Amino acid sequence: MNPRIISANLVVKLMSFYREKTAMFFTIAFPIILILVFGTIFMDQENVSFDLCVQDLDQTNSSAQSVKTLELNGKFKITKVDPAVNAAQYVRDNKVNLVLVIPKGYESSLMQRMMSNDFNAYVTITYIYDPSSTSVSTKMEILNSVFAGINQKMSGKPPFIRSAETSILTKKYRFIEFFIPGIIAMAVMTLSLFGTVNLNTELRQKGIIRKLSTTPITRTDWILSNILYQFILAVVSTIAMLLVSYAVFNVSLHINAWLLAFILLDVFAFVGIGMILTRFVKEAQSAAAAANAISFPMMFLSGSFFPIELMPGFLQTLARILPLYYVNEGLRASMVFEDNMAALRYAAVIGVFAAVVFILGIMTTTLSEE
Predict the structure, then answer these.
(1) Which pTM does this prediction carry?
(2) Whole-angstrom Cα distance, residue 247 to residue 242?
(3) Which of 113, 128, 136, 282 lies at a 20 to 30 A Cα distance from 229?
């Protein structure tokens, strides 16, 4: 064993690691990003509160006290819904995922139970919910826990408060059917961003892009061919994901023109970002690290894997300005709910973003100066 050889070899490896910006990113920066993102999201989960809409049809002191119990024991932020409105329509119009309906006659049934010891007296609380929200089941579990505590105080008796669930959708969907559109959006983002960054930086370092300026190819031809290439890859990837999803999970998704539209907008948006990155970050390793720094937080914060409602308020605000969020929601609106108006709104937002970053990408892309 020769300590000098070992130390020299160690120095070489450390210097090589220092030069590999991508390796440095995944070794040091990426774990820190994950800690910051998930630590912020799940920090102090015991104090996490959910928004809860409550429609009190009884309008009595007893029903108001029950709402107060939900606020304190369930740690809900209560929003009162006018008893005159249709709760299911309220869920659709206001984009909330759950309305708890306290029935008329709540107080009289409670008095009958408490004063007359009538064990047949009970009330049914109704959950009017949107199953597209992945956090709605958590809300209902908390509500059931609070109501179980209330029932437990009447120990030895049948439960006074019972619950019923009513979906706003006529068809029942599974979580996998909300999950797949998010994965499609994320995969297209990754392909477009990293494909552009990796290809352009590699060709630039090899001097190929500079040589292109001596050929008949124009900047427009070069960019459009890259767009078409990334779009074809994205379509192939999407088809593969859908085939597996149908074959393995027997999903029920609506395949229509919106799917291709959102894939195309996704490609334009992240190819544009990729072109901007490769213009200002010269080395391939540095460009890849910069792409990672953009893509990884975005895929975790945009609602691809878990609902943004679990995040603190400032992260929810951040999520709603991320382009991937609008691709996710647009694909779900078209593939799950067949809501063309919602899909159009999300497409308009991501379309404006894609146009801006793509134009900036074109302006920063040159062949002769590479």
Answers:
(1) 0.72
(2) 8
(3) 282
Rounded to whole angstroms, the Cα distance separating 308 from 24 reads 30
How far is residue 81 CA from its own chain's centroid? 27
Q: pLDDT tens digits, residue range 103-160? A: 999 999 888 888 877 778 889 999 998 876 767 877 888 898 888 888 888 765 788 8
Which phi and psi (to 5°) does residue 89 adopt? -70, -35
Question: If you average pLDDT over every residue of the chain, what do you get?
Answer: 81
Residue 203 structure tokens: 């060709």
Side-chain-side CA neighbours of 36 within 13 Å: the count stands at: 10
Kindly state the tokens that stand for 35.
């800690």
The contacts of residue 133 (CB under 8 Å, 6+ apart) are 97, 98, 307, 309
- Quote the CA–CA distance of 223 and 203 in Å, as a whole number: 14
User: Are the CB atoms for 161 and 77 separated by under 8 Å?
Assistant: no
Alpha-helical regions (H) of the chain: 3-19, 21-24, 30-42, 61-73, 87-94, 106-116, 136-152, 175-205, 208-212, 219-244, 257-280, 284-301, 313-319, 323-335, 340-364
Length of the chain: 370
Neighbours of 209 (CB within 10 A): 22
**pLDDT exceeds 50 at position 370:** no
Inter-helix orientation angle 323-335/257-280, to 10°: 170
Cβ(291)–Cβ(282) under 8 Å? no
